[in-house]
Amino acid sequence: MAVPLRKSFTQVQLNDERDIIEGILQIGTYTPPPGLPTLEELRTMNVDVQESLDEITALEKALEAARNMLLGRAQIRHEALMRTKSQLIASYGRDSNILLTVGIKPLGDYKRAARRNTDDEETPTDSTPTT
User: Fold this and answer.
1) How far apart are the C-alpha atoms of 102 and 118, rounded to whole Å?
2) Do 43 and 60 form a contact (C-beta atoms < 8 A)?
3) Exposed site from 82, 100, 106, 124, fewest CB < 10 Å?
């Protein structure tokens, strides 16, 4: 019967198992019984796990670099767009139909903040008459 795969291992578990295998490999007199992995197989498994961890680390660094590149490019685009938008408003006026066609809302179309009641303005909810 196959053992079901775990969803994840913590870094601590991976490090502990690596250290155990390294310790087993240091025992000069140990010979595994039939059915258990040989010392060379344990060594190979240890190398395979470490290579996978190294690959994940490299991919995480590449992902972080790609995110930083995206943020930089998005910031440059945003600033250029804000300057362009200001120029369009200055050139054509705030209520121009040209601004509507490019997606800039006229001044009156922005949603105004809703007024909220404060605790002092709340009306009593129980129906007992006051005298």
Assistant:
1) 39
2) no
3) 124
